Amino acid sequence: MRPILKSNKLDDVCYEIRGPAMEKARQMEEEGHKIIKLNIGNLAVFGFDPPDEIVHDMIRNMHGAAGYTDSKGMFAPRKAVMHYTQEKNISGVTIEDIYLGNGASELIVMAMNGLLNNGDEVLVPAPDYPLWTAAVSLSGGNPVHYICDEQAGWMPDVEDMRRKITSNTKAIVVINPNNPTGALYPREVLLDIIELARQHQLIVLADEIYDKTLYDEEEHVSMASLADDVLFITLNGLSKNYRACGYRAGWMVVSGEKRHAKDYIDGLNMLASMRLCANAPGQFAIQTALGGYQSINDLVGPGGRLLKQRDLAHKLLTDIPGVTCVKPKAALYMFPRLDPVMYPIADDQQFACELLSEEKVLIVQGTGFNWIAPDHFRLVFLPNSDDLSDACGRIARFLDGYRRRHGRG
């Protein structure tokens, strides 16, 4: 019989966070091995529960969740998001500028589908959260990766952005706070990017899903609060700040220079209608979450579990010979660098699989985040301190063996 092939639109689409190493880990678990999974920011499996009031409000409202909602979402949670944009100093946002989605991920794909024609280009950071690159490719566009500079604390290289803008460039993606590096961008950097967008009439797509997961009393500045003459698409949700990944409750806000974007906004409205609506139970969680006690502050503040685990993971990793890591100011991840002289890695996916086989620790290789060289990996620091110490100890043991095997011991 003739083979049934996947669409060629998927040729340039990958999502290594759930890639081959994850499949290998699944097989090993079926064989009875216990795997320490440091590959995904899935908070619930590490004992980070959503606030009780969110759970209780969802349960109380479940009787009203059976029908379709407005295609953009229910009024009350969209109103709560509107108030949140006001808290973030984003001006001019109305209820009609807000779209609720099945997580921010669905809305990222919607924003790209509505914007791109074949051959259009979007500037995407390297390293990036790979859904962005995949969404651009799947929408017929070409992702063009601009460098974030590790030597500058993983700040975006604005001059590299400038060099890569062409007549086909439609938008710039900014992930702030950043996944996978944990970098948090200051106002000055954001203003430089906005000026670039202004000069070239580009849309700014701002992924701000970790905007409350901040350490060391850092503050997050929403890009859309810094200008009103550029079109901004801001994405956020409950997955990370409120430990509610499975609720699939996210939102997208259109702000700034909307007057010349009517046709694009009509396209977004069409796409929102085509998927009928976001899941209703998740929508019921949004108003309670945004208006309730912000328990994330207890986790990231002095004595908080996330803060302690960040500090522990950073120390344990950087104590390993040849491993350096910019200490994250935000989010749930580290993106350490392996000295290529001490660790001559040719294929970092194979490197990750070897670590998994030998030490039962699952990480994601750096090239899975569209990084340019096989010299980084990402891990989450969500396990409790004992498990995190165990995992980092296993990584240290594996790296010691790797150095010896390659004559670098």
What's a concise summary of this model?
This protein is of the alpha/beta class and 409 residues long. The protein has helices at residues 20-30, 52-61, 75-87, 103-115, 130-138, 158-164, 187-200, 262-274, 280-291, 296-300, 305-318, 348-359, 385-405, and strands at residues 36-37, 98-102, 121-126, 142-149, 155-156, 169-175, 203-207, 231-237, 249-256, 323-324, 333-334, 337-338, 361-362, 364-365, 377-380. The protein has an 8-stranded mixed β-sheet with strand order 2-9-8-7-6-3-4-5.
Could you list some keywords that capture this structure?
409 residues, alpha/beta, 2 domains, Aspartate Aminotransferase, domain 2, single chain, 3-stranded antiparallel β-sheet, 8-stranded mixed β-sheet, Aspartate Aminotransferase, domain 1
